[in-house]
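User: Before I run my own analysis I want an independent prediction to cross-check against. Here's the chain; please return only the structure tokens and, at the end, one sentence I can use as a sanity check.
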Amino acid sequence: MTMPELEEYLKAHLDYELQWLLRAATEWYVQDRIKLEIEGYQLQVYAMDSAFLHGRTLFEFFTQRTTGNYYGCDAFGVPVLVSSRYPGDWKAPLHSHAMHAQDRTSTNQLTSFDGASKKGLNQMPVDFAMEIVILWREFAPALGRSTNQDIQNLEATATNLLTSAIENAKNITTNKMVKPYGVVPIPW
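Assistant: Structure tokens:
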């Protein structure tokens, strides 16, 4: 990709995935806390599915090399990042259950992002998002270490995109619909 294409990919495509991953994970988290359980209102399921799809896209970007099917962070001259959880016990269930019709209740327990617990796949949206935030926080400074000045300049953009995504996700916990429930924002 050319430099303008890399910048556009970061600002348009990667930002889109990050914004909606953090918002979806936050919405899942909110719904899990407030437990409305209103028939016909399964927002938590929509949020979970969205978090899985956006998370999977970003995991592939950060942890795998560019192929004919998708770009990896190596397209920016950044070495492929290592996640402590993906692939680990996350990749297979995230891929198979997000992309194929399978029974999610029968998955093995997955390791939480911090390694402190085991959870079912349906309880993992925030964990996936937290791991992506960790990887993004490695990616931005890696851009700044590039020998290419134009790539170095993308560090500030990547950092600002993460800040914006976190703020937009936080707004879900403080909007007028959710605020009365007192849901504490996720500490990204």
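Sanity check: The first strand starts at residue 110 and ends at 111.
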